[in-house]
């Protein structure tokens, strides 16, 4: 996953090379966006979080340890931003009723559907779509480890580093997430 020259590109960034800045963004933008979208499930929020990830990455680039995998370090930033975003979003209560101006009557509003666009659904196969839906039902702390392991191909050690968790916790969360998914699949079978 990590390009052999990531530490060199980081070194050039720290020296003020604008091309190196663009190179890092181009190299990892799709992967960061993919993780963010899978976590927050809202296109606009994922785009904002992707941009914020790179802003924070560039601010903290001098703290990157070149002996560690760059993608793991970058996904640490992404996952923490996503988890913070989900915590803030969970705290916001939204009324499903709206009062018409000048009236005492309330009417139920139709909330925006955060689901996938039809063109995205058409591209994906039913089996893949169902597995993604199941992963989306996982609590965020399970969802992120599954995504980093199976979609970004990070090792357990890289995930532990990225999330700042003990290795045993990462293994336990992945095991528990798989058990939850297996149980949900079995309960759907006729």
Automatic annotation (TrEMBL):
A GO BP annotation: DNA-templated transcription initiation
Protein name according to UniProt: Sigma-70 family RNA polymerase sigma factor
One Pfam entry name: Sigma70_r2
Domain of life, per lineage: Bacteria
Domain RNA polymerase sigma-70 region, residue spans: 24-90
Family, per entry: Belongs to the sigma-70 factor family. ECF subfamily.
GO molecular function, one term: DNA binding
Domain RNA polymerase sigma factor 70 region 4 type per the UniProt entry, residue ranges: 132-181
Annotated keywords: Sigma factor, Transcription, Transcription regulation
Species this chain originates from: Eiseniibacteriota bacterium
């Amino acid at each position: 996953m990590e390009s052999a020259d990531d530490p060199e590109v980081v070194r050039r960034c720290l020296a003020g090379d604008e091309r190196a800045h663009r190179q890092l963004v181009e190299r990892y933008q799709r992967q960061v966006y993919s993780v963010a979208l899978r976590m927050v499930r809202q296109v606009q929020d994922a785009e904002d979080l992707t941009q914020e990830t790179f802003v924070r990455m560039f601010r903290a680039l001098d703290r990157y340890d070149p002996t560690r995998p760059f993608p793991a370090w970058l996904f640490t930033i992404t996952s923490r931003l996503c988890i913070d975003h989900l915590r803030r979003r969970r705290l916001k209560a939204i009324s499903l009723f709206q009062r018409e101006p000048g009236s005492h009557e309330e009417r139920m509003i139709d909330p925006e559907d955060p689901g996938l666009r039809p063109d995205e659904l058409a591209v994906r196969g039913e089996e893949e779509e169902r597995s993604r839906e199941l992963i989306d039902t996982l609590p965020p702390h399970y969802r992120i480890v599954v995504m980093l392991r199976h979609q970004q191909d990070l090792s357990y050690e890289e995930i532990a580093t990225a999330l700042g968790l003990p290795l045993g916790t990462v293994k336990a969360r992945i095991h528990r997430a798989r058990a939850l998914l297996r149980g949900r699949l079995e309960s759907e079978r006729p």
